[in-house]
Every structure is written in structure tokens, then in C-alpha cells.
Specification:
about 170 residues, Alpha-Beta Plaits, alpha+beta, 4 strands
Length: about 170
Amino acid sequence: MEITLDMLLDSRDKRSTRQKELIQAYPECRLVCLTVVMPGNVKRNLHSLVVAGAAVAQMAHSFAGHIIYFKAHDLPTGYEAYLMTDLDSEQAKRLACDIEDNHPLGRLMDIDVMGADGAPTQRQAVGKAARSCLLCDQEARYCMRNHTHTQQELHECIDKMIASYV
């Protein structure tokens, strides 16, 4: 199903609301929020579900013993998961970065960590560089902002990643 810009913006607003509600409900915890990276206007497909399944399994393993709450949402606008942990922000961010950097599909996972103030813990706070592009050595944000690569190129790369994983 193709989504519209309005649907995407609405889903971001709802995600922000969920994040605030969880942070308020668990003020002593850190929020770990997963979204699947899927360029284009189709956010839910077989590939995104493979990535989501892998991400959830890895998060459960990596955060084992430190999960206070976990909830996943399989939405037309993309898969989301919310995990509350008793780890401090830096410990949680290190685990999140380890998943993003080392899991075979980690480049297709966006795992944010937020403290009680709702501010995300940056990769640089734990000594990690900004994430690189799927296709080149540039910073991912740079290529996204400048539309350096076509969606076809990105999807071909994702196809290869998924095929290699499964």
C-alpha cells in the first residue's frame, strides 16, 4: 500500500505522542524506539517485515534482563516498536548502535534512545560516527537531503541485503 505525505506526517505525530506517553508512564526508564528504514512511499512490505522481525529479535536479545515494557505496531506507514529499559541512556544507546552497526540488517533499522526529557541520545555521545549512506561513504543525512541516489538504487541495495540475510 502506498502512503501519502499526510499519512506519513500523521504517523510521525502519533509516534511522538506515544513516545511522550511512555516517557511519562515510565519516568525512571529510557525509551528505545525502533523504526524500519524503507525509502519511498511503500513502508510496509515483505522486506520491512523481515527487517522488523530481525530487529525485534535482536533487541529482545540485546536488552534481555533490562526490558520493562515492550510494544510493537505493524502499521501501513511502517513498523514501529517501543521498549522501555532500566539501563541509562548511554548504555542503551551503545546497545542500539551495536545493533545498527553490526546486525546484517542493522542499516535498515533506526533505533533511537530517549531519556526522561524526551531528547534523543546522539551516536556521538557514545563515541560513534553518524550513520553512513547505504550506497556510499557519505553521511546518510547528506544523501537523503540531496537525493544523491535514486529510489531504484536504494531498493536494489535493500533487495540484496534482505536476500543475503534470508
